[in-house]
Every structure is written in C-alpha cells, then in structure tokens.
Amino acid sequence: MNCPVDNTTLVMSERQGVEIDYCPTCRGVWLDRGELDKIIDRGGDDGGGGEVRAAPQPGQPRKKKKNFLSEMFEFGE
Q: Which residues lie across from 19 on neighbouring strands?
C-alpha cells in the first residue's frame, strides 16, 4: 500500500499488539478500523487526556512529555 500523501510505500509495524502502517518519508500513520480503539484501551489511564499544564513563559522552551502514544509512534528516532 502506498502513502496517500507522497506515494511512498508504507511500512507495517506492530506496536503493543496493534499492526499500524506508517510512511517513512512524511511520517504519517494510518490505522485500520478499530485499531485506534485498541491503542487507547492498551494505553490505560496514562493517556494524558485530563492533564492541565500552564503555558510556558516567553523565551522558555517547552518540554515534550512522553506518553504511550508518543512512545508508540517513535519510528527510528
């Protein structure tokens, strides 16, 4: 299957028991029906949905918090 954005051949990868397709060029991720639900279910309560953080002050760098989704979609970094 090819990427709908740049026509590169998609790579299949299994993360947490869910098979996903991603593009190594544009880093787009495509899921089949029901796969997002499986990912969310396996992420548990640490999905970060209820977290509230203050905005950083001007000139202060933002720290990127890792959660199960960011870890799941790290390809070769």
A: 14
